[in-house]
Specification:
The chain has one domain: Jelly Rolls. It is built from seven helices and 14 strands. The longest helix is centred in the last third of the chain and has 24 residues.
Length: about 290
């Protein structure tokens, strides 16, 4: 993998952001954006336990989903407060993603403001919380709705690996899915380049997010996250401004995923073999370029 750091600024003008990052689909870290929000100092484990501790949530372990399982299937369920207490207690390979805590405690939405000056199209009904225990992993994927993301870290440190969407074949994307066949867990120490050699050619970014960092992830960006410490973050999603981008997200969300789920249920082995052969052929083309 050919990695470089993500640009980092404390503040950037809306014009500078749109010209140099949004329009170019280039990631950026803004360190000062969240500091203006009450959430920057207010949000912690006990605050969320008090607000939504009794709500049952799905939790996900570090086991990479196989090629027969529909995506986003929870590994277990527990009360949100019980989960956060376990996270606080020490290393825990369980995480929560796409949790709309604000639906259950609407008053929390007053703790932050939507940065409309930077982009249009925010899906304001669905701000999402992401939580992980120390050692938990979010495996390499891109977001199926193809939205732009502002991802703000509020506690703990998290290592993030990022790649533009067009690097998908070097990353061994599984056809009809948003996931990679390769396992990037602990990629900086032990990655299987022998099985997945095209990954050496993939050009991307690496960054460690800390408290208050807001990461702009352009639509379709591949990302892999490792929780170096127990932590949580909030994602604000914005649909792409052009019709083609919106339609692409809708197709992946309601068309592509539905077809893949159906095939996994009806012809799982044939479907898996077909997709693996296709992705390996596409990676081989990248190696020959």
């Amino acid at each position: 993998m050919q990695l470089k750091p993500v640009d980092k600024v404390e503040y950037i003008s809306p014009e500078g952001f749109k010209k140099n990052y949004y329009d170019l689909k280039k990631p950026l870290i803004i360190t000062g954006l969240a500091k203006k929000w009450p959430a920057f100092k207010k949000w912690n484990w006990d605050y969320f336990i008090d607000k939504v501790g009794e709500k049952e949530v799905g939790v996900y372990n570090n086991v990479k989903s196989d090629s027969y399982t529909p995506i986003n299937t929870a590994d277990d369920y527990m009360k949100f407060g019980d989960y956060l207490r376990k996270v606080k207690a020490g290393p825990l390979d369980l995480r929560i993603f796409l949790f709309n805590i604000f639906q259950h405690a609407p008053d929390i939405t007053t703790d932050f403001s939507w940065p409309d000056e930077y982009m249009n199209g925010f899906v304001k009904k669905y701000p999402m919380l992401f939580v992980g225990g120390q050692g938990s992993i979010t495996h390499m994927h891109f977001d199926i709705d193809m939205s732009h993301i502002l991802h703000t870290q509020f506690a703990g440190k998290k290592r993030v690996l990022l790649f533009p969407h067009e690097e998908q074949y070097k990353l061994y994307r599984k056809p009809w899915e948003v996931l990679s066949l390769a396992n990037y867990a602990n990629y900086n120490k032990d990655f299987d380049y022998q099985t997945f050699p095209a990954t050496r050619l993939a050009q991307g970014y690496e960054v460690i997010l800390e408290h208050g960092d807001t990461l702009f992830m352009p639509a379709g960006y591949w990302h892999h996250m490792e929780y170096l410490e127990a932590g949580f973050a909030m994602s604000l999603r914005a649909m792409q401004k052009d019709l083609g981008g919106k339609l692409d997200g809708l197709w992946k969300l309601f068309g592509m995923r539905g077809i893949d789920t159906l095939m996994k249920k009806t012809l799982p082995q044939w479907w898996y073999n077909r997709k693996k052969a296709q992705l390996m052929a596409l990676a081989e083309k990248e190696l020959k370029k």
